[in-house]
Amino acid sequence: MFATLPDALRLFVVPVFAWAALRDVRTRRLPNRLWPPLYAFGALLLIWEIAAMWPLAGIEGRLFLVQAAISLLFVAPLGYAFWYLGAFGGADAKALIALAILFPTFPEYAVAGAELPLVETQIGVFSLTVLTNAVLLALAYPLGLAAINLLRGERSATMFLARPVATDSLPDRHGRLFEDDEETTRNGLDLDALRMYLRWRGATLADLRADPDRLRDPDSVGETHDPTDGGTHVGPRTDGGTATATATGVDGGDRGDRPDDPWAAERFLEEIDHGAYGTDAETLRGGLAVVAQADRVLVSPGMPFVVPMAAGLIVSLTFGDALFAALGAVGLV
Question: What mean pLDDT is reported for the chain?
């Protein structure tokens, strides 16, 4: 037999995660409606397996219960914890929670005489294996970025973290500036926040670069507009951020109380009434000063963790646990 029916049905999740990874790379946005069906599907399969093994007697039943408990009560909360600490985006956290519900234990597939996954762990929590494989794959990303920089003749201390791009290309890019108006920095302006700011004041990046001195004056801001969530597409609210429903439609009133507000950065952050990806006024000003003057800027493109999670799922279903295999090769497990 190829697999149990629950394990065979779990394979339908693979193309869903592949689609999510591709969309996240292109837009850095995943719709909230993607996750509840996956949670429900995983819960249904888990109930199915519990019913088939009921009353969960013997070593096999108790082991299944422990493994499911670890996945649901440890791995799933990790997604929320990583999001709370800022290590994950909202979609990344929801994807890990979905994996914890869908894959609490190791599935088994018979393919061409082989039993997949090839490498299982002693603890047997498959969602934990997907997570560790995803982390290992994510660690390879800086090496790939450095290789791209080398191929383009770029050699610098930041080659593992950022790459130079044409400033005019920023409206269609995702990531974070790796510099401000004073130096290179890992806490530069998020490009989504840049788009939010430009949409708020009804300007384009070309407008800003053509006349930066005028736009630096806070009095140059007239009617303001819906900043959206800063995505390269303008659409419904998504995991990428929270967008206001309508334009502010205000002219700013008396601006005399903000005489030292270059670029109207403080006014922008006050009016949008929600965060702009952790951006403060100084970070916004530093980023605007850079993009207004430089023809090329350093950008850290980042990588949505859903991408290595999708790849880690495929590796886990076929090879198994790469970390456990490596530890076993050196005699540590």
Answer: 89
Which amino acid appears at position 227 of this protein? P
Residues with Cβ within 8 Å of residue 313, at least 6 apart in sequence: 13, 14, 17, 99, 130, 134
Query: Nearest 5°: CA angle at 131, between 73 and 124?
Result: 65
> In terms of Cα–Cα distance, which of 99, 97, 104, 108 is closest to 68?
104
Query: Which pLDDT tens digit goes with each residue over 249-290?
Result: 444 444 445 558 999 999 999 998 777 888 999 999 999 999
Q: What stretch(es) of the chain map to CATH 1.20.120? A: 5-141+305-329
Q: Could you tell me which CATH number the domain at 5-141+305-329 has?
A: 1.20.120
Amino acid at 333: V
pTM confidence score: 0.84
Which tokens in the block code for residue 64?
A: 């299944």
**Does 332 have pLDDT greater than 90?**
no
Predicted confidence (pLDDT) at residue 247 exceeds the cutoff of 50? no
**Strand ranges for 60-210 from DSSP E:** 109-111, 114-116, 163-166, 176-177
Helix (H) or strand (E) run with residue 299 in it: strand 296-300
Structure tokens belonging to residue 325? 């295999």
Secondary structure (3-state) at 184:
strand
Answer whether 291's CB lies under 8 Å from 167's CB. Answer: yes
Angle formed by the axes of helices 76-84 and 90-102, to 10°?
Answer: 170
